[in-house]
Specification:
Bound molecules: FE2/S2 (inorganic) cluster
Number of domains: 1
Helix content: 10-25%
CATH architecture: Roll
Radius of gyration: 13 Å
Structural class: alpha+beta
Strand content: 15-25%
Shape: globular
Order of helices and strands: EEHEHEEH
């Protein structure tokens, strides 16, 4: 079973096994998702807005909820990419937050281009 995910604003897509996190899927397709702590729920630079498939992600644990409290512009469809697991054989769409994009380009300035 596989999940398909599209990352906005760039529109890059990945097809990954069910059970993959959003962060792992982003790495698979080169999406510009920040991950300053390496994926251990200790920052919030992997913050995304889930536009399609929110109910078919893994449930949010307390640690993620706490960490999201410190994120910028949190919305009802906010998740941390390193914690949210793609649970179903379906398509997902997530928008990478500005905060996350900035963290990514801080880490990889050579990929920034005209941004
Ligand atoms: S990468 Fe740090 S909380 Fe997700």
């Amino acid at each position: 079973m596989s999940a398909r995910i599209r990352f906005e604003p760039d529109g890059v897509e990945a097809e990954v096994p069910v059970g993959t996190t959003i962060k792992e899927a982003a790495e698979r397709c080169g999406a510009h998702l920040g991950s300053a702590c390496g994926g251990v729920c200790a920052c919030s630079t992997c913050h995304v807005y889930v536009k399609e498939g929110l109910d078919d992600l893994s449930a949010m644990e307390m640690a993620e909820e706490d960490r999201l409290d410190g994120a910028f512009d949190v919305r009802p469809n906010s998740r941390l990419g390193c914690q949210a697991v793609l649970r179903q054989d379906r398509g997902y769409v997530v928008e990478i937050t500005r905060e996350s994009l900035e963290a990514f380009f801080d880490e990889y300035p050579e990929l920034r281009g005209g941004r």
